[in-house]
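Hey L., structure's done. Input below.
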Amino acid sequence: MKARRTPWWWYVIAMLVGLLAGMGISHLEETRGLGLAGIPYLASAVMVVVGFIVLYLAWQVHKYTTTDPKKRAQLKPMDSERCVNTLIVSKALAIAGALLAGWYGGQIVMLYDRFEAPFFRHIVIECIIAVIASVIDMVLGIISEGLCQLPPNMGPEHPKVVRKRREERLARFTNRASGLPMQAAGHHAGNNGADESDKWEKPCN
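Output:
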C-alpha cells in the first residue's frame, strides 16, 4: 500500500465547511441562546497537548524507519500497524485542526460586532484562543504526516528500480531499432548473391 500526502485543498475545504458551520451556530446562539458557542480554555490547551503527542509519536516512527538497519536492532521494535495508525492519526489531526479553525473563526466573524457585551466578549476571546490552538494542531498534523513517510524499500516502487527498469526498456528498444536495418541489409545482400549464383549455375544451351 502506498500512502499519499493529504492534498492542500482538503484543508481549505475543511476550513470553509467549519466556517459556515461556525457562522450558523453563532446565529443560533444570538437568536435562541443554545450555549453551543465558544470553548473552555482548558479544552484549547488539551488540543495543543494532543497535537504534540501525535508529533512525538510521528517522530518515533521517523527515527525508527530512517535508522540504519544495523543500528535499528538496538531500538525498541516497532510493528507496521503502529506506523500506519500514527499516519492515520496525523492526517486526522491536520484535517480536524483545519475544520475547527474554520468553526471557531466563523463564530468570531458573527459575534465580533457584539464584542462590547461581556457575554459575547468572553465567547469571542475563547474562540480566538481556540483558533490559535486549531491552527497549531493543523500544522503539527501536517508535520507529523511528513515524518510518517517511510523510505521506499528496494521493491518495484523504489526510484532506483524504476529507473533501472526504464533504462532496460530503452536499451531493448534501441537494440531492436538498430538491428532491423542490419537484418534488412543482410537479407538484401543475400538475395543479390543468390541471383548471381543462379546466373552462373544455369547450364549453357
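The two ends are 81 Å apart (CA to CA). Residues 199-205 have pLDDT under 50 and may be disordered.

-- N.
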